[in-house]
Design brief:
single chain, binds adenosine-5'-triphosphate, binds magnesium ion, 34% helix, Rossmann fold
Length: 232
């Protein structure tokens, strides 16, 4: 089953077209990796799918349903979780409030949410009442990922989560993504960390200057073939 699909998506900022005629699909229970150098338009494509950057043409679908004209909050409400590259946390709110915000959860449900987040990233328990703005870069990334995780998404859109993270945390995230896949979640992730992408990915799409230049299965692909399309 196709969880997420972009069909001929073109988008950009003002007059500037950044993403041209991109086609991607993410099967339920699998990971599609969006690879490409700095500035090729990976983040812009993810933001277009989330409804944050306006689409000029093309269609985006969630489990076959057209979501092209939906607002970001409507897309999120359909169990699409987005972990942005810039680690957007509510800086003045505690780690606890960042995790439970908007869940309208009872006290017991909130407890479950927190337990789930701490099981994923034990360090967050020690930071519970700390303001999110005071966390380290890596801790912010963990918080953003945990916030997506506890919402039990059907689709996750993840932007360069491994950037700047220590290897032990990248390993934790690799394990979490593997479990999400087993639970049928479709994951679309932009990456430049090839080892991580190849550890979690099922298929890849290479983007260059806003367009798709190559696509294929991760299994059996030569590292050198993908490496040449990355900045790092
Ligand atoms: N808010 C914006 N307004 C105008 N141009 C932008 C904006 N955000 C990004 N761009 C431009 O769009 C192009 C693609 O940027 P984008 O952030 O999508 O690339 P990326 O592939 O995610 O790069 P990176 O690997 O560095 O994260 C770049 O030329 C960038 O300068
Ligand atoms: Mg980016």
């Amino acid at each position: 089953m196709i969880a997420l699909e972009a069909d001929g998506v073109t988008s950009g900022y003002g007059e500037t077209v950044v993403v041209r005629n991109m086609n991607i699909h993410v099967d339920a229970g699998s990971v599609t990796c969006l690879l490409g150098r700095n500035g090729v338009g990976k983040t812009t494509l993810l933001k277009t799918i989330m409804g944050v950057v306006p689409r000029r043409s093309g269609i985006t679908r969630l489990f076959g349903q057209d979501i092209s004209t939906k607002r970001p909050y409507e897309i999120a409400a359909r169990q699409v979780a987005y972990a942005p590259q810039e680690s957007a946390v509510f800086a003045d709110l505690s780690v606890k409030d960042n995790l439970t915000l908007g869940l309208k959860a009872s006290e017991a449900q909130a407890r479950n949410v927190l337990d789930e987040a701490f099981a994923a990233f034990p360090i967050l328990e020690q930071r519970l009442s700390q303001k999110a703005g005071t966390l380290s870069g890596g801790e912010k990334k963990m918080l953003v990922f945990a916030r997506a995780l506890v919402r039990h998404p059907r689709v996750m859109i993840i932007d360069e989560i491994s950037e700047g993270l220590q290897p032990s945390i990248v390993y934790l995230i690799t394990e979490l993504i593997t479990r999400l896949k087993q639970n049928g979640v479709g994951i679309f992730l932009a990456e430049q960390n090839l080892a991580f992408a190849m550890a979690v990915g099922d298929s890849y799409v290479v983007m260059h200057r806003g367009t798709m230049v190559e696509t294929g299965a991760i299994e059996g692909v030569a590292v050198a073939r993908l490496e040449k399309h990355l900045s790092i």
